[in-house]
From TrEMBL:
Its EC number is 1.1.1.85. It comes from Methanocorpusculum parvum. This is 3-isopropylmalate dehydrogenase. Its cofactor is Mg(2+); Mn(2+). Keywords: Manganese, Metal-binding, NAD, Oxidoreductase.
Length: 374
Protein backbone atom coordinates (compact mmCIF):
# COMPACT_ATOMS: atom_id res chain seq x y z
CA UNK A 1 0.00 0.00 0.00
CA UNK A 2 1.23 3.48 -0.84
CA UNK A 3 1.67 5.86 2.06
CA UNK A 4 1.73 9.59 1.47
CA UNK A 5 3.05 12.07 3.99
CA UNK A 6 1.06 15.28 4.14
CA UNK A 7 1.07 18.36 6.34
CA UNK A 8 -2.10 19.65 7.91
CA UNK A 9 -2.52 23.26 8.99
CA UNK A 10 -6.08 23.86 10.24
CA UNK A 11 -5.47 27.51 11.21
CA UNK A 12 -8.05 29.81 12.80
CA UNK A 13 -11.78 30.27 13.20
CA UNK A 14 -13.72 27.49 11.51
CA UNK A 15 -10.45 26.08 10.07
CA UNK A 16 -10.06 23.16 12.51
CA UNK A 17 -13.73 22.11 12.12
CA UNK A 18 -13.74 22.06 8.33
CA UNK A 19 -10.32 20.41 8.09
CA UNK A 20 -11.47 17.62 10.42
CA UNK A 21 -14.24 16.82 7.93
CA UNK A 22 -11.84 16.95 5.02
CA UNK A 23 -9.55 14.48 6.71
CA UNK A 24 -12.36 12.04 7.38
CA UNK A 25 -13.12 12.08 3.67
CA UNK A 26 -9.53 11.79 2.45
CA UNK A 27 -8.85 8.97 4.87
CA UNK A 28 -11.95 7.14 3.63
CA UNK A 29 -10.83 7.69 0.04
CA UNK A 30 -7.49 6.12 1.00
CA UNK A 31 -9.24 3.13 2.51
CA UNK A 32 -11.33 2.68 -0.61
CA UNK A 33 -8.58 3.21 -3.16
CA UNK A 34 -5.72 1.55 -1.31
CA UNK A 35 -3.47 4.26 0.09
CA UNK A 36 -2.71 5.84 3.42
CA UNK A 37 -2.16 9.45 4.32
CA UNK A 38 0.18 10.01 7.19
CA UNK A 39 -0.73 13.47 8.54
CA UNK A 40 1.59 15.81 10.42
CA UNK A 41 -0.16 18.69 12.19
CA UNK A 42 1.06 22.28 12.33
CA UNK A 43 -0.41 24.74 14.83
CA UNK A 44 0.50 27.84 12.81
CA UNK A 45 -2.12 30.57 13.13
CA UNK A 46 -3.52 33.40 15.21
CA UNK A 47 -3.34 31.64 18.58
CA UNK A 48 0.33 30.87 18.22
CA UNK A 49 1.04 34.35 16.89
CA UNK A 50 -0.70 35.96 19.86
CA UNK A 51 1.21 33.80 22.30
CA UNK A 52 4.67 33.89 20.75
CA UNK A 53 4.68 36.83 18.33
CA UNK A 54 5.78 34.46 15.59
CA UNK A 55 3.83 34.07 12.35
CA UNK A 56 5.72 31.25 10.66
CA UNK A 57 9.37 30.48 11.30
CA UNK A 58 12.05 29.45 8.86
CA UNK A 59 12.18 26.12 10.72
CA UNK A 60 8.47 25.53 10.21
CA UNK A 61 8.78 26.38 6.53
CA UNK A 62 11.70 23.97 6.18
CA UNK A 63 9.69 21.29 7.96
CA UNK A 64 6.71 21.90 5.63
CA UNK A 65 9.07 21.54 2.69
CA UNK A 66 9.41 17.84 3.48
CA UNK A 67 5.83 17.27 2.38
CA UNK A 68 4.42 17.20 -1.14
CA UNK A 69 1.13 18.67 0.09
CA UNK A 70 -0.25 20.89 2.82
CA UNK A 71 -3.94 20.70 3.72
CA UNK A 72 -4.80 24.18 4.90
CA UNK A 73 -7.98 25.35 6.66
CA UNK A 74 -8.21 29.11 6.99
CA UNK A 75 -6.56 31.97 8.82
CA UNK A 76 -7.78 35.27 10.21
CA UNK A 77 -8.82 36.29 13.69
CA UNK A 78 -10.64 39.28 15.16
CA UNK A 79 -7.82 39.91 17.61
CA UNK A 80 -5.24 40.44 14.87
CA UNK A 81 -5.17 43.39 12.47
CA UNK A 82 -6.33 42.38 8.97
CA UNK A 83 -3.44 41.54 6.69
CA UNK A 84 -0.94 40.37 9.30
CA UNK A 85 -1.84 36.68 9.27
CA UNK A 86 -2.81 36.66 5.61
CA UNK A 87 0.51 38.10 4.50
CA UNK A 88 2.63 36.56 7.23
CA UNK A 89 1.34 33.01 6.88
CA UNK A 90 -0.74 32.34 3.77
CA UNK A 91 1.19 34.49 1.31
CA UNK A 92 4.44 33.55 3.04
CA UNK A 93 3.80 29.89 2.28
CA UNK A 94 2.69 30.57 -1.30
CA UNK A 95 5.87 32.56 -1.96
CA UNK A 96 8.32 30.42 0.00
CA UNK A 97 7.34 27.32 -1.94
CA UNK A 98 6.96 29.25 -5.18
CA UNK A 99 3.41 27.93 -5.62
CA UNK A 100 3.00 29.75 -8.89
CA UNK A 101 -0.28 28.16 -9.92
CA UNK A 102 -3.44 28.99 -8.04
CA UNK A 103 -5.93 26.50 -9.38
CA UNK A 104 -9.57 27.37 -8.85
CA UNK A 105 -12.23 25.17 -10.45
CA UNK A 106 -15.54 26.90 -11.13
CA UNK A 107 -18.01 24.07 -11.48
CA UNK A 108 -21.69 23.97 -10.70
CA UNK A 109 -22.38 20.64 -9.06
CA UNK A 110 -25.70 18.89 -9.59
CA UNK A 111 -28.30 20.01 -7.09
CA UNK A 112 -26.59 23.33 -6.34
CA UNK A 113 -28.45 26.57 -6.90
CA UNK A 114 -26.67 29.20 -8.94
CA UNK A 115 -27.84 32.82 -8.95
CA UNK A 116 -27.60 32.70 -12.76
CA UNK A 117 -31.03 32.14 -14.24
CA UNK A 118 -31.32 29.19 -16.62
CA UNK A 119 -27.74 28.00 -16.19
CA UNK A 120 -27.15 24.32 -15.57
CA UNK A 121 -24.18 22.24 -14.43
CA UNK A 122 -23.13 21.71 -18.06
CA UNK A 123 -22.97 25.51 -18.53
CA UNK A 124 -20.75 26.27 -15.57
CA UNK A 125 -17.64 24.12 -15.70
CA UNK A 126 -14.31 25.85 -16.12
CA UNK A 127 -11.05 26.36 -14.28
CA UNK A 128 -9.26 29.57 -13.44
CA UNK A 129 -5.48 29.30 -13.36
CA UNK A 130 -4.38 32.32 -11.37
CA UNK A 131 -0.73 33.30 -11.41
CA UNK A 132 0.18 33.20 -7.72
CA UNK A 133 3.59 34.83 -7.14
CA UNK A 134 3.80 38.06 -9.14
CA UNK A 135 1.79 41.12 -10.15
CA UNK A 136 0.69 43.40 -7.32
CA UNK A 137 1.38 40.65 -4.79
CA UNK A 138 5.17 41.00 -4.92
CA UNK A 139 4.96 43.40 -1.99
CA UNK A 140 6.98 46.23 -3.47
CA UNK A 141 5.50 49.53 -2.58
CA UNK A 142 5.76 52.41 -0.23
CA UNK A 143 3.91 55.01 1.66
CA UNK A 144 5.97 57.51 -0.23
CA UNK A 145 8.91 58.62 1.84
CA UNK A 146 11.65 60.53 0.16
CA UNK A 147 14.75 58.46 -0.41
CA UNK A 148 13.02 55.13 -0.94
CA UNK A 149 12.64 53.84 -4.48
CA UNK A 150 13.93 57.18 -5.73
CA UNK A 151 13.52 56.65 -9.42
CA UNK A 152 9.85 55.81 -9.10
CA UNK A 153 9.39 58.66 -6.72
CA UNK A 154 10.83 61.13 -9.19
CA UNK A 155 8.12 60.22 -11.65
CA UNK A 156 5.37 60.27 -9.07
CA UNK A 157 6.60 63.56 -7.69
CA UNK A 158 6.47 65.24 -11.07
CA UNK A 159 2.97 63.93 -11.64
CA UNK A 160 1.51 64.80 -8.25
CA UNK A 161 3.19 68.12 -7.71
CA UNK A 162 1.29 69.30 -10.75
CA UNK A 163 -1.92 67.40 -10.03
CA UNK A 164 -2.53 68.13 -6.32
CA UNK A 165 0.45 70.30 -5.40
CA UNK A 166 1.93 67.56 -3.21
CA UNK A 167 5.58 67.91 -2.29
CA UNK A 168 6.60 64.30 -1.80
CA UNK A 169 9.67 65.31 0.21
CA UNK A 170 7.61 66.90 2.94
CA UNK A 171 4.05 65.58 2.52
CA UNK A 172 5.11 61.99 2.95
CA UNK A 173 1.72 60.86 4.21
CA UNK A 174 -0.11 62.14 1.19
CA UNK A 175 0.36 59.28 -1.21
CA UNK A 176 1.32 55.65 -1.53
CA UNK A 177 2.19 53.39 -4.41
CA UNK A 178 2.45 49.72 -5.15
CA UNK A 179 4.31 48.04 -7.96
CA UNK A 180 3.06 45.14 -10.04
CA UNK A 181 5.72 42.95 -11.56
CA UNK A 182 5.24 40.55 -14.45
CA UNK A 183 8.13 38.49 -15.79
CA UNK A 184 8.58 36.44 -18.93
CA UNK A 185 9.58 33.29 -17.02
CA UNK A 186 6.87 33.80 -14.41
CA UNK A 187 4.17 34.20 -17.05
CA UNK A 188 5.44 31.42 -19.28
CA UNK A 189 5.39 28.72 -16.61
CA UNK A 190 1.84 29.45 -15.46
CA UNK A 191 0.63 29.71 -19.06
CA UNK A 192 2.22 26.36 -19.89
CA UNK A 193 0.39 24.84 -16.93
CA UNK A 194 -2.87 26.34 -18.22
CA UNK A 195 -2.27 25.14 -21.79
CA UNK A 196 -1.48 21.63 -20.53
CA UNK A 197 -4.69 21.66 -18.54
CA UNK A 198 -6.70 22.93 -21.51
CA UNK A 199 -5.30 20.08 -23.58
CA UNK A 200 -6.77 17.63 -21.10
CA UNK A 201 -10.13 19.42 -21.17
CA UNK A 202 -12.02 21.20 -23.95
CA UNK A 203 -8.87 22.66 -25.53
CA UNK A 204 -9.83 26.27 -25.07
CA UNK A 205 -7.79 28.82 -23.13
CA UNK A 206 -8.79 32.40 -22.36
CA UNK A 207 -6.18 34.90 -21.19
CA UNK A 208 -7.64 37.61 -18.97
CA UNK A 209 -5.71 40.85 -18.58
CA UNK A 210 -5.94 44.61 -18.90
CA UNK A 211 -3.40 45.09 -21.66
CA UNK A 212 -5.34 48.02 -23.08
CA UNK A 213 -4.42 50.24 -20.11
CA UNK A 214 -1.63 48.63 -18.08
CA UNK A 215 0.36 48.22 -21.26
CA UNK A 216 3.76 47.54 -19.70
CA UNK A 217 3.00 44.65 -17.38
CA UNK A 218 0.11 43.11 -19.26
CA UNK A 219 1.67 43.96 -22.62
CA UNK A 220 4.49 41.60 -21.63
CA UNK A 221 1.91 39.06 -20.38
CA UNK A 222 0.30 39.08 -23.83
CA UNK A 223 3.59 38.83 -25.64
CA UNK A 224 4.44 35.71 -23.61
CA UNK A 225 0.97 34.29 -24.24
CA UNK A 226 1.46 34.73 -28.00
CA UNK A 227 4.81 32.92 -27.80
CA UNK A 228 3.59 30.14 -25.54
CA UNK A 229 0.54 29.34 -27.62
CA UNK A 230 2.76 28.40 -30.57
CA UNK A 231 3.59 25.21 -28.64
CA UNK A 232 -0.07 24.24 -28.39
CA UNK A 233 -1.56 24.44 -31.90
CA UNK A 234 -4.56 22.30 -30.92
CA UNK A 235 -5.73 24.72 -28.22
CA UNK A 236 -8.07 27.54 -29.23
CA UNK A 237 -7.16 30.80 -27.53
CA UNK A 238 -8.74 34.14 -26.90
CA UNK A 239 -8.21 37.30 -24.87
CA UNK A 240 -10.66 39.00 -22.58
CA UNK A 241 -10.18 42.20 -20.64
CA UNK A 242 -10.82 41.66 -16.97
CA UNK A 243 -13.71 44.11 -16.74
CA UNK A 244 -15.47 42.44 -19.67
CA UNK A 245 -14.84 38.94 -18.36
CA UNK A 246 -16.86 39.69 -15.23
CA UNK A 247 -19.85 40.25 -17.53
CA UNK A 248 -19.23 37.10 -19.56
CA UNK A 249 -18.84 34.91 -16.45
CA UNK A 250 -22.36 35.97 -15.55
CA UNK A 251 -23.94 35.99 -18.98
CA UNK A 252 -22.14 33.18 -20.84
CA UNK A 253 -20.17 30.99 -18.42
CA UNK A 254 -20.45 28.14 -20.94
CA UNK A 255 -17.91 29.94 -23.14
CA UNK A 256 -15.08 29.18 -20.74
CA UNK A 257 -12.91 26.11 -20.35
CA UNK A 258 -9.58 27.24 -18.86
CA UNK A 259 -8.82 30.85 -17.94
CA UNK A 260 -5.29 32.07 -17.18
CA UNK A 261 -4.79 35.41 -15.50
CA UNK A 262 -2.36 37.48 -13.43
CA UNK A 263 -2.56 37.34 -9.66
CA UNK A 264 -4.83 40.20 -8.68
CA UNK A 265 -7.38 39.79 -11.45
CA UNK A 266 -7.42 36.11 -10.57
CA UNK A 267 -8.17 36.95 -6.97
CA UNK A 268 -11.12 39.08 -7.99
CA UNK A 269 -12.69 36.97 -10.72
CA UNK A 270 -12.54 33.78 -8.66
CA UNK A 271 -14.79 35.29 -6.00
CA UNK A 272 -17.25 35.98 -8.80
CA UNK A 273 -16.69 32.42 -10.01
CA UNK A 274 -17.34 31.12 -6.50
CA UNK A 275 -20.66 32.90 -6.42
CA UNK A 276 -21.89 31.44 -9.70
CA UNK A 277 -21.00 27.92 -8.55
CA UNK A 278 -23.11 28.29 -5.43
CA UNK A 279 -21.14 30.53 -3.10
CA UNK A 280 -17.88 30.58 -1.17
CA UNK A 281 -18.96 27.48 0.75
CA UNK A 282 -18.38 25.55 -2.45
CA UNK A 283 -15.20 27.05 -3.85
CA UNK A 284 -12.00 24.98 -3.61
CA UNK A 285 -8.45 25.98 -4.41
CA UNK A 286 -4.95 24.66 -4.81
CA UNK A 287 -1.67 26.58 -4.62
CA UNK A 288 0.56 24.45 -6.75
CA UNK A 289 4.23 24.06 -7.41
CA UNK A 290 4.26 21.06 -9.74
CA UNK A 291 7.78 20.15 -8.60
CA UNK A 292 7.57 21.10 -4.95
CA UNK A 293 5.27 21.56 -1.99
CA UNK A 294 1.70 22.49 -2.85
CA UNK A 295 -1.06 23.75 -0.56
CA UNK A 296 -4.78 23.09 -0.78
CA UNK A 297 -7.37 25.33 0.85
CA UNK A 298 -10.93 26.54 0.48
CA UNK A 299 -10.94 30.03 -1.00
CA UNK A 300 -13.13 31.35 1.83
CA UNK A 301 -11.76 32.72 5.09
CA UNK A 302 -11.87 31.68 8.74
CA UNK A 303 -15.35 33.09 9.56
CA UNK A 304 -14.48 33.70 13.25
CA UNK A 305 -18.09 34.29 14.25
CA UNK A 306 -19.00 30.68 13.44
CA UNK A 307 -15.99 29.21 15.23
CA UNK A 308 -16.82 26.24 17.42
CA UNK A 309 -20.53 26.30 16.48
CA UNK A 310 -20.39 23.21 14.28
CA UNK A 311 -22.32 25.02 11.51
CA UNK A 312 -19.65 25.85 8.94
CA UNK A 313 -19.97 24.31 5.50
CA UNK A 314 -16.95 22.01 4.93
CA UNK A 315 -17.63 21.25 1.26
CA UNK A 316 -15.08 23.69 -0.17
CA UNK A 317 -12.44 22.16 2.08
CA UNK A 318 -13.43 18.62 1.19
CA UNK A 319 -13.32 19.55 -2.50
CA UNK A 320 -9.87 21.12 -1.98
CA UNK A 321 -8.92 17.75 -0.52
CA UNK A 322 -9.89 16.22 -3.85
CA UNK A 323 -7.44 18.59 -5.56
CA UNK A 324 -4.82 17.44 -3.05
CA UNK A 325 -5.45 13.81 -4.05
CA UNK A 326 -5.14 14.80 -7.70
CA UNK A 327 -1.75 16.36 -6.98
CA UNK A 328 -0.60 13.09 -5.41
CA UNK A 329 -1.65 11.25 -8.56
CA UNK A 330 -4.69 9.60 -6.93
CA UNK A 331 -7.05 10.66 -9.71
CA UNK A 332 -9.74 8.01 -9.21
CA UNK A 333 -9.96 8.83 -5.51
CA UNK A 334 -10.06 12.54 -6.34
CA UNK A 335 -13.07 12.15 -8.64
CA UNK A 336 -14.80 9.86 -6.17
CA UNK A 337 -14.58 12.65 -3.59
CA UNK A 338 -16.25 15.15 -5.92
CA UNK A 339 -18.95 12.62 -6.87
CA UNK A 340 -19.70 11.96 -3.22
CA UNK A 341 -19.88 15.70 -2.49
CA UNK A 342 -22.45 15.83 -5.28
CA UNK A 343 -24.35 12.89 -3.77
CA UNK A 344 -24.50 14.63 -0.41
CA UNK A 345 -25.94 17.73 -2.05
CA UNK A 346 -28.55 15.74 -3.98
CA UNK A 347 -29.48 13.92 -0.76
CA UNK A 348 -29.75 17.31 1.02
CA UNK A 349 -27.18 16.07 3.49
CA UNK A 350 -25.81 19.60 3.76
CA UNK A 351 -25.38 22.43 6.26
CA UNK A 352 -27.90 25.19 6.90
CA UNK A 353 -26.37 27.69 4.45
CA UNK A 354 -27.27 25.22 1.67
CA UNK A 355 -30.76 24.59 2.96
CA UNK A 356 -30.01 21.47 4.98
CA UNK A 357 -30.07 20.71 8.68
CA UNK A 358 -26.78 18.90 9.14
CA UNK A 359 -23.91 20.01 11.27
CA UNK A 360 -20.33 20.40 10.10
CA UNK A 361 -19.30 17.22 11.88
CA UNK A 362 -22.03 15.15 10.13
CA UNK A 363 -20.90 16.05 6.64
CA UNK A 364 -17.53 14.34 6.64
CA UNK A 365 -19.11 11.19 8.06
CA UNK A 366 -21.81 11.18 5.39
CA UNK A 367 -19.40 11.71 2.51
CA UNK A 368 -16.85 9.24 3.88
CA UNK A 369 -19.55 6.56 4.09
CA UNK A 370 -20.71 7.36 0.57
CA UNK A 371 -17.18 6.91 -0.76
CA UNK A 372 -16.75 3.59 1.02
CA UNK A 373 -20.11 2.38 -0.31
CA UNK A 374 -19.55 3.63 -3.88
C1 LIG B 1 -7.44 34.41 -1.62
C2 LIG B 1 -7.39 35.45 -0.56
C3 LIG B 1 -5.94 35.88 -0.36
C4 LIG B 1 -5.45 36.49 -1.66
C5 LIG B 1 -5.68 36.81 0.81
C6 LIG B 1 -6.29 36.32 2.10
C7 LIG B 1 -4.21 37.08 1.00
O1 LIG B 1 -8.22 36.52 -0.87
O2 LIG B 1 -6.84 33.35 -1.43
O3 LIG B 1 -8.08 34.64 -2.65
O4 LIG B 1 -5.61 37.69 -1.90
O5 LIG B 1 -4.89 35.75 -2.46
MN1 LIG C 1 -9.41 36.20 -2.66
Amino acid sequence: MTTYNAACMPGDGIGPEIIAEGRKVLDAAGEKFGFDINWTDFDTGAEKYLQTGELISEDELKELGKFPAIYFGAIGDDRVKPGILEKGILLAIRFYFDQYVNLRPIKLLKGVETPLANKKPEDIDFVVVRENTEDFYVGIGSRAKAGKQRDHLEVIRDLYSVKFGIDVETDSDELAYQIGVVSREGSKRVMEYAFDLAQKREKKLTSVDKANVLTDVYGLWREVFEETKKGYPNVTTEYNFVDAVTMWFVKNPEWFDVVVTPNMFGDIITDLGAMIQGGLGLAPGGNINPKGTSMFEPIHGSAPKYKGKNVANPLATIWSGSLLLDSLGEHAAASAVVSSIEHSILAKAVTKDMGGSMHTSDIGDWIAKDILRG
